[in-house]
Design brief:
heterotrimer; A alpha/beta (337); B mainly alpha (501); C mainly alpha (167); A: 337 residues; alpha/beta; D-Maltodextrin-Binding Protein, domain 2; 2 domains; globular; C: 167 residues; mainly alpha; two-stranded antiparallel sheet; 6 helices; flat
């Protein structure tokens, strides 16, 4: 009886402690990093993933969310393959994190570099990045329908669509659009989203599928016009951006007859074989990051979809997404060999 | 004259003791970053970016942009002293800067490098102050075809200048292009020339090649000739700055030309590294003493440094006005602007006047402060050459290795650096020119990318490279530059034939 | 560095031998480039060149130029020396430790390897006393650690020692 009592009490204590740990700062016995945490960015400096990683690093440092320092390391080689291989090879190391973009799925498929999300431990989804169809504001297209009609009426390959990288998210959307419209478009790959937006302003290309944060400055300046957003529902942000328009006023592409939905994962992973306590620690850390005003501001400025997921739910989401990418890439003929 | 009053307002925003303090800190940090190869301005800015969150944006951007200026200044130091370019854009500075140091003129070379950097930057800032909107709309005209033509021009104005046998020059240059092609092909997103090796995914970085070919190669050559630096160490001379300054005005034309080249390359945006090569190439061709370039001509230090700094500075303009970074460092600064909630782009100049003009004012002040800081250090830097070879050589080797590692955080690169070093030693001894090789590594990838993007746009028609006025003009200039030696030779002969008649 | 002193009595390798070897080395690189390009596809598709197009031609030019260089190298007077054996021995003194150093970095970490390299170099090549040798070889890694890891937050490769120290 005394034994059961003791067990029962210890279980209650453990539950209370776990609750406390999840609500407040990690208690003394929970796992904590004992050395510098490397935050790998599988892309170059200055891109969307890099910015988000450095933002997280900055928030962690500014609010003192972690006792150890966090350093951002760019490993961009092989369309990010270098960074993912590094995580794959760091099995059991709880002091490494990686931020992903869609190249988590596309790079192994397009290049054959051997890694997959299954070689890593999913930590949490930080946000989903939206995609918007943009045209130069001087073009006559006022809606996606007009744009689609113009593409349909012109010969194959006449419309040029610029995007970031090759066989990655932007080109996947382009191929999906071609499928929906039934006309070929020419896809021009560039190095970065900002460059793509400016190429559109300079009329070197006809349309882009830039992320909101990449093109918003040109929109506000009246140089670009958003036609539709590749999401199931309109964006929630109602602040006026350009003239009377807000992000919320951009119709979904589906409502415009382009039945395409695509959102890009901005999520955190760590190496396989790490203790569960460590994963929980980082999940909590990321939740704290998300609670800061700086994060809210970033989500607002970039019109991100601030969905949060962790644990089994997140893993499941990633698994589905990988399947979807495999199909999309296969349809587009982007698979290596 | 709205610009001037805005600028004065900018000065009033910037001029505070705290900002001045940040400026000093930034410059010193930047010089350190510039000196350490591999740790580029982009790293420095990126790493410190998160630390600046708690500052007001104007102070933060002053700190960060001063790191940038410091790095621009600092890159020249190791180039001149040890033939190791601390930054990509100071490769061309080694061509004459290091021979000067070997002749015992390290102080002169450093002074010339710093001063011309300053002049280049100042020129670019004035351009930004007076012509920002105009320049921004000019930059908008640059699509892939235009960019390719700029790379073509940069390349043409540099090649075909060496005394080395043509077949060796061609072999070295093409080898550079081949090395640049290794890794991910940006246009198709597939891998090439990696032969299944995961180490080669990232390709060969320019900096690794340069640290190996120039830095390690130089140490090997030094070893071959006995355990000492080939030049005698200069006597420490505190007045070296003044003495060098007296001689500089003679080169005003070279400086002006290099300023223009630098601004042009910074805005288009091809970047500081091609600008420095192009400027060196043109200075060599147009100078009376062109034949002596490469043996320690001060003009060969002035030309690339002026252009590199002008390009580095003017590269910030497209970043601010269009949101397109003209250099990796500018890309990181751009990220910083976004984090602070400032949207770079056409409206930044209208909505964030304080910020923009504060930044421009800080460009003036930061460069003046930077020049003062580095010039006072010249005798100290020159004194490093007095450290015995047995101590400094292993330290240089270690710094090179760390530099090679930090470029991509990859141990394999350290091994490649040594391979490049041994190759550099043999190439140098066998009279293969290294400069075309490294220029090809810098330009190869970007030029090919621009070329193929242009063809995608034109639907495969090569005529895109002479279809519009702008492209056609730049391409024609490139051809003129390529054949200039032959043309000038011909003209010279015609002229000589006529004059006696 | 395969040049070892030979009993042939020559004071060093001939320029023409070395130049011919360099030409062949470059030729080999060119050939590798061509092979890699063929794998990637060298055609000119309807939307411009494929990814192997440029490397293929570049590789071909490298090969052709190397053939010219080889022929010219063979024509160099046999009397010209590349360097004397004693000079090459000096070069080897740095290449061999460097080779050991760069291959040790992934295993020992950069700090320990660097300390060993500097110490070895100063002690056996520079013939400095132990106090100065130890002082410099230990202080540089520490300084590097502080600058890179603490100040600029750039992680460098670490080995067992750093693991043990918990850095």
């Amino acid at each position: 009886m005394a034994m059961t009592d003791f067990r029962w009490r210890s279980r209650v204590t453990a539950m209370v402690a776990a609750l406390a740990a999840s609500l407040f700062s990690p208690a003394a016995w929970a796992w904590e990093p004992t050395r510098t945490v490397e935050f790998i960015v599988p892309a170059g400096t200055g891109g969307g993933a890099d910015q988000m990683a450095r933002m997280i690093q900055g928030i962690v440092a500014k609010h003192g969310l972690m006792k150890q320092t966090m350093v951002v390391v760019n490993k961009a080689g092989g369309a990010g393959g270098e960074g993912f291989l590094d995580i794959k090879n760091a099995k059991g190391n709880p002091h490494k994190l990686v931020i992903t973009l869609s190249n988590l799925f596309t790079t192994p498929l397009a290049t054959g570099i051997p890694f997959s999300w299954k070689d890593m431990t999913p930590v949490s989804m930080m946000a989903l990045d939206e995609f918007v169809l943009w045209v130069n504001a001087e073009t006559p297209f006022k809606s996606a329908q007009e744009f689609v009609a113009a593409v349909k009426a012109s010969p194959d390959g006449k419309f040029k669509l610029g995007g970031t990288g090759s066989k990655q998210e932007d080109q996947i959307i382009t191929v999906a659009m071609q499928r929906a419209i039934g006309k070929k478009m020419t896809y021009i790959p560039y190095k970065g989203g900002g460059e793509v937006a400016v190429q559109l302003v300079g009329k070197h290309i006809d349309a882009t599928v830039n992320n909101p944060i990449e093109a918003v400055a040109q929109w506000r300046a009246g140089a670009l016009r958003p036609l539709c957003v590749f999401d199931g529902k309109p964006l929630p942000i109602k602040d006026k951006i350009a003239g009377d328009m807000s992000w919320a006023d951009i119709p979904t592409c589906k409502s415009q007859g382009l039945d395409i939905e695509y959102l890009m994962l901005r999520g955190i992973f760590m190496p396989a074989g790490v203790p569960k306590d460590a994963v929980d620690y980082y999940v909590q850390l990321m939740q704290k990051v998300r609670a800061t005003p700086e994060w809210a501001q970033l989500m607002h400025d970039g019109a991100f979809n601030p969905t949060f997921m962790a644990g089994g739910e997140y893993a499941k989401w990633v698994e589905n997404e990988e399947k979807r990418h495999r199909e999309l890439m296969k349809e587009a003929g982007f698979l290596a060999n | 004259m709205e610009g001037i009053s805005d600028l004065l307002h900018g000065f009033s925003v910037v001029l505070s003791w705290t900002n001045f303090f940040y400026m000093l800190v930034g410059i010193i940090l930047g010089v350190i970053i510039g000196v350490l190869p591999g740790l580029g301005g982009a790293n420095g800015v990126a790493i410190l970016l998160p630390l600046t969150f708690s500052m007001p944006p104007t102070s933060a951007i002053i700190l960060l942009s001063c790191i940038y200026w410091g790095a621009l200044f600092g890159g020249a130091i190791t180039s001149i002293l040890f033939n190791i370019p601390g930054e990509p854009w100071s490769v061309a500075t080694t061509f004459d800067g290091h021979p000067m140091a070997q002749k015992g003129q390290a102080g002169e070379a450093l002074t010339a490098a710093f001063t011309s950097s300053f002049i280049g930057a100042l020129f670019a800032v004035i351009v930004i102050t007076l012509a920002a909107p105009l320049v921004a709309s000019f930059a908008l005209q640059f699509g892939p075809a235009e960019k390719f033509s700029v790379f073509f021009l940069a390349f043409c104005s540099f090649v075909g200048m060496g005394k080395e046998p043509p077949a060796k020059t061609i072999a070295a240059m093409m080898l550079g292009f081949a090395l640049a092609a290794v890794g991910t092909d940006t246009v198709t997103g597939s891998l090439r020339l990696t032969f299944g090796s995961t180490e080669l995914l990232g390709g060969f970085d320019f900096l690794i090649a340069v640290i190996g070919l120039f830095g390690i190669g130089e140490i090997l050559l030094t070893m071959e000739e006995g355990l000492s630096f080939r030049g005698k160490a200069a006597a420490i001379n505190p007045t070296v700055v003044w003495q060098t300054w007296k001689g500089l005005p003679r080169y005003w034309l070279t400086m002006l030309r290099s300023c223009l080249i630098g601004c042009w390359m910074g805005i288009t945006p091809a970047g500081a590294t091609p600008a420095s090569f192009m400027s060196y190439g043109i200075a060599k061709r147009s100078s009376k003493d062109g034949g002596k370039f490469g043996t320690g001509e001060i003009e060969g230090v002035i030309a690339p440094e002026t252009a590199a700094h002008a390009a580095g500075t003017s590269a910030l303009l497209p970043m601010l006005a269009l949101g397109v970074p003209g250099s990796p460092t500018a890309a990181v600064l751009l990220g910083g602007l976004l984090i602070w909630g400032l949207q770079p782009g056409p409206l930044l100049f209208v909505e964030q006047k304080d910020f923009v003009w504060g930044l421009i004012a800080s460009m003036y002040l930061g460069n003046i402060v930077g020049l003062a800081v580095v010039l006072t250090m010249v005798p100290v830097f020159a004194a490093i050459l007095r450290v015995p070879f047995g101590i400094i050589a292993p330290i240089i080797l270690v710094i090179c290795a760390i530099g090679a590692y930090t470029v991509h955080n990859n141990s394999f690169d350290v091994i490649m650096m040594l391979v490049f070093g041994v190759v550099g030693y043999f190439f140098k001894k066998c009279n293969y020119p290294l400069a075309p090789l490294v220029l090809a590594i810098v330009l190869g990838d970007k030029a090919e990318e621009a070329f193929r993007q242009s063809l995608l746009i034109s639907g495969g028609s090569v005529s895109v490279f002479w279809s519009s006025g702008l492209v056609g003009t730049i391409m024609a200039l490139g051809l003129v530059a390529l054949f200039w030696p032959a043309v000038s030779n011909l003209l010279g002969r015609l002229f000589r034939q006529r004059s006696p008649a | 560095m395969s040049n070892t002193p030979q009993a042939s009595g020559t004071p060093g390798p001939r320029q023409r031998t070395v130049e011919a070897c360099v030409a062949l080395f470059v030729l080999a690189l060119g050939t590798i480039t061509i092979i890699g390009s063929l794998q990637a596809g060298i055609g000119w598709g309807e939307e411009g060149p494929k990814s192997g197009f440029f490397p293929f031609w570049v590789g071909l030019i490298v090969v052709l130029a190397s053939v010219v260089n080889f022929v010219r190298a063979v024509a160099i007077s046999p009397r010209r020396l590349f360097a004397e054996w004693s000079q090459l021995a000096e070069v080897r003194k740095i290449v061999v430790p460097m080779a050991i150093y760069v291959s040790a970095v992934p295993w020992l970490g950069i700090y320990l390897s660097s300390a060993l390299l500097i110490a070895g170099f100063m002690r056996w090549l520079g013939r400095y006393g132990w106090p100065l040798t130890l002082c410099i070889s230990l202080s540089l890694p520490v300084l590097t650690y502080v600058t890179f890891e603490r100040w600029f937050l750039v992680p460098l490769p670490k080995g067992p020692i750093e693991d043990w120290l918990g850095l």
